[in-house]
Amino acid sequence: MKKRYFEDLKDGEHINCQPVVMTQEAIVDFGKKFDPQPFHIDEKAASRSLFGGLIASSLHTLSACTRVVVEAQGNVAILSGVGMHERSKDVQSSASR
User: Which of 58, 56, 38 is nearest to 48 (CA)?
Assistant: First the structure.
């Protein structure tokens, strides 16, 4: 498959992402490693929380979403941080005034 770049993408283009299954074990494991709040790691504590039960960390769901989007995009060139250099120049300019 030919590599695609930003200008090759079309507005409204859809990608087909694979479903993600998050098991209780995976939710607790991720929570213990990266986001150890009670509603991510302790079923009893989670049942008394606002959520009423164990939930996955937003970081966990974002990571899973990122994975399936990258896989679904195929051979798309990824350029991260576009515009950050220009933005940092604006901040430096305004700070020197």
Answer: 38
Q: Which helix (H) or strand (E) element contains residue 33?
A: helix 24-34
Classify residue 91 by its DSSP letter: H
**Widest CA span in the chain:** 55
Q: Enumerate helices (H) and strands (E) in the chain, giving the number of each.
A: 5, 0
Per-residue pLDDT of the chain (97 residues; tens, 9 = 90+): 789 888 888 899 899 999 999 999 999 999 999 999 999 999 999 999 999 999 999 999 999 999 999 899 888 887 766 665 655 555 555 455 5
Q: Which residue in this structure is represented by tokens 């150890």? A: 36
DSSP result, 56-81: --HHHHHHHHHHHHHHHH-SB----S
Structural contact between residues 46 and 39, judged by C-beta atoms closer than 8 angstroms: yes
Beta bridge partners of 4: 76
Distance (Å, whole) CA 38 – CA 40: 5
